[in-house]
Design a protein that fits this description.
This protein is α+β, with helices and mostly antiparallel strands. The chain is 45% helix and 24% strand. Strand 7 and strand 8 form a beta hairpin.
Length: 344
């Protein structure tokens, strides 16, 4: 690896640091912020053998190569970039000579204890001289992209870490969503367990009373009618003796299904309010309608056989109905009156 000795920088003479330039080159120098140099050589037939000398070098490039301007100007380009190390640069210079078009090249500049990544743009032009020989001048712009490369590497590593972190967050999010869904299912299951009777599938007493109270308030507010029907399963002892105690649950389940069949879907509501009692809320229903509903339900119970453990049985029921009164102040008043009708 080639090393360059660092000398103390000196301010170059104005004639050396500010060469006579044409408008295009001067504009280039004015807008470039990194290292600029101008090299010049006789235009000879064997372009590979042309030896370029440095005609201009700015402060940034002097800092890069660690040499004073007086030690660089009028010296061979090899003083800055030995051809042994920078063959790619010399290939670009050769192409610029031949094609007279801009040439770009990236090289690694080997300095003491470090390597600098450079991006170089070469812009050639023929020059006429007073002698018979012609010259070619190349303006070069060097951008030291090492900080950018390091920054890019850092950002790339950072991006990889952020992607890994994002993937981890996505996995955590999915796990959390799965847990939330599972929790929602558990909550719904608990809500159903709390609201609905396991055997009959109907609303439990507490939930039934809540819904009844809400319907009572709605009917009161809008002046609508509201009726209530209650039925009680009869002959439980005979069912237990003939078919076994577990068959009582099947009898309750069968009766509940019949009640739901008789109810208007999305309007009426049935609930198991006691061990062998089922009540039904009948919104928008007056006393005549409640009586008709009960006649239809009684007929449906009588004609529907229920399958138990060792055979079929037709259930017997008692019934009671009630209609909300003008002076009622709670749903429970109507329910109590309907339950009293069971005993009459």
């Amino acid at each position: 690896m080639h090393d360059f000795q660092a000398n103390q920088l000196k301010q170059p003479p104005a004639a050396l640091s500010q060469p006579l330039l044409f408008g295009q080159e001067k504009a280039i120098l004015d807008i470039l912020s990194d290292g600029v140099f101008i090299i010049e050589a006789p235009l000879i037939q064997n372009t590979a053998a042309a030896e370029f000398t440095v005609q201009y070098v700015n402060e940034t490039l002097r800092d890069l190569v660690k040499k004073d301007a007086v030690d660089i100007l009028d010296q061979s380009i090899g003083k800055l970039f030995p051809q042994f190390y920078y063959a790619a640069l010399y290939d670009a210079i050769s192409q610029a000579q031949i094609l007279l078009t801009r040439q770009d090249v990236e090289i690694t500049y080997k300095a003491r204890n470090s390597e600098q990544q450079l991006r170089i743009a070469l812009m050639p032009r023929r020059l006429s001289s007073k002698s018979t020989d012609q010259k070619i001048q190349i303006v070069g712009c060097i951008n030291n992209v090492t900080p950018l490369a390091k920054r890019a590497s850092y950002l790339e590593n950072r991006a990889v870490k952020l992607i890994d972190h994002a993937n981890g967050l996505e996995t955590s999010r999915r796990d959390l969503e799965s847990k939330v869904k599972s929790l929602h299912r558990s909550i719904k299951k608990l809500e159903r367990t709390a609201r609905y009777d396991k055997i009959s599938g109907l609303s439990k007493r507490v939930y039934f009373l809540e819904q009844g109270a809400a319907e009572f308030q709605r009917s009161k507010r809008y002046g609508h009618t509201l009726s209530l029907a209650v039925i009680s399963l009869q002959g439980l002892e005979k069912i237990a003796q003939a078919h076994g105690v577990p068959s009582l649950d099947k009898a309750i389940t069968g009766l509940a299904q019949i009640c739901e069949t008789a109810c208007r879907s999305g309007i009426d509501m049935a609930g198991r309010i006691n061990e062998n009692e089922i009540a039904m809320i009948l919104p928008e229903t007056n006393l005549t309608g409640a009586l008709q509903f009960m006649d239809r339900l009684t007929a449906l119970v009588g004609e529907t056989p229920i399958q138990l453990n060792n055979g079929f049985v037709r259930l017997g029921i008692r019934s009671g109905i009630d209609t909300m009164q003008v002076d009622d102040h709670s749903f429970m008043q109507s329910l109590i009156r309907a339950q009293k009708g069971l005993a009459e």
